[in-house]
Design a protein that fits this description.
329 residues, Peroxidase, domain 1, mainly alpha, 14 helices, Peroxidase, domain 2, two-stranded antiparallel ribbon, 47% helix
């Protein structure tokens, strides 16, 4: 009995017990690697398979997943608020001008449906946004990023915060840097993250101001002629599918060709070309242009940091059954 009382009153044992309880409490709510290992062991495999299948059917989905991560996580939190549709007083973030050209949201439902069949109301839409971006990056030739999971879904949209959170393609490089630095990215990480412009395409609406009425003098003349061929009018119909590839050489490969193009005055958007002309960002453009491996490393780090911006965890938010609507609707 005396031995038992001695053990119970041992300060070291009490401290160890409290430390373990505290650690458990933190880990229970925070993002973790393999968060679904017990509740839905096949979750990440299911997402990866769906991303792969969708890529094989519609290659452009991989680019959409990367853009979804950017648009979701930069606005308040990585919480899938981006996916909410306009209904019952909720204004969708997708309606913002900053979201112009985004698509393939319907295929998020394809991924969610596969998860719901396996593990109902278990895997959040926010984690789908993060993991589909991770797997999409691999489909585009980028590194596999070990992402933590355990995000929960927002019960509200933040449409009113989109324009003040997301930089525009016409914004000054100073403003662009400020927006990204507000979530913890440094200058090198920001330049790396903008390397996502290595893939995909840009609608003419977003670039004609560099072509008309006169050509932007920072544009390579031959490249400007190519862009005019793609965008032959200064007033393109925003509903028309008129666009130019961000990178003509490797348009669906995430690589450092983007930075090589910037050094050759072939940046597609104003914000792109500013990276090569601003003394703060230019050294990183030059470094990435000469070392693709280094770019890939820094891009992966930046994406990981972005994916962990202010997530909802523990008892915050919810796990949506349908990513388009909060559960109460």
């Amino acid at each position: 009995m005396a031995t038992t009382n001695k053990l119970r009153s041992s300060p070291s044992l009490i401290f160890l017990s409290l430390a373990l309880l505290f650690h458990f409490y933190l880990c229970k709510g925070d993002l973790l690697l393999n968060y679904y290992s017990e509740s839905c062991p096949n979750a990440e495999d299911i997402i990866r398979q769906e991303v792969t299948d969708l890529y094989n059917k519609h290659g452009n989905t991989a680019v959409s997943w990367v853009r979804n991560l950017f648009h979701d996580c930069m606005v308040k939190s990585c919480d899938a608020s981006l996916l909410l549709e306009t209904v019952n007083g909720i204004e969708s973030e997708q309606a913002s001008e900053r979201s112009f050209g985004m698509r393939n949201f319907k295929y998020v439902s394809t991924i969610k449906e596969a998860l719901e069949k396996e593990c109902p109301l278990t895997v959040s839409c926010a984690d789908i946004v993060a993991l589909s971006a991770r797997d999409g990056i691999v489909m585009l030739g980028g590194q596999r990023i070990e992402m933590k999971t355990g995000r929960r879904d927002s019960k509200e949209s933040y449409a009113n915060f989109v324009e003040e959170s997301l930089p525009n393609h016409n914004d000054s490089i100073t403003l662009v840097l400020s927006r990204f630095q507000s979530i913890g990215l440094d200058v090198e990480g920001i330049v790396a993250l903008l390397g996502a412009h290595s893939v995909g395409r840009t609608h003419c609406t977003n670039l004609v101001q560099r072509l008309y009425p006169t050509v932007d003098p920072t544009l390579d003349p031959q490249y400007a002629e190519y862009l005019k061929g793609r965008c032959p009018t200064p007033n393109p119909d925003p509903k028309a599918v008129l666009y130019a590839r961000n990178d003509r050489e490797t348009p669906m490969i995430l690589d450092n060709m983007y930075y090589k193009n910037l050094l050759s005055h072939k940046g597609l958007l104003i914000v792109d070309q500013q990276l090569a002309s601003d003394p703060t960002t230019y050294p990183y453009v030059k470094k990435f242009a000469t070392d693709n491996g280094y770019f890939q490393d820094q891009f992966a780090k930046a994406v990981l940091l972005l994916s962990e911006n202010n997530p909802l965890t523990r008892d915050d938010g919810e796990i949506r059954k349908d990513c388009r609507y909060v559960n109460s609707i």
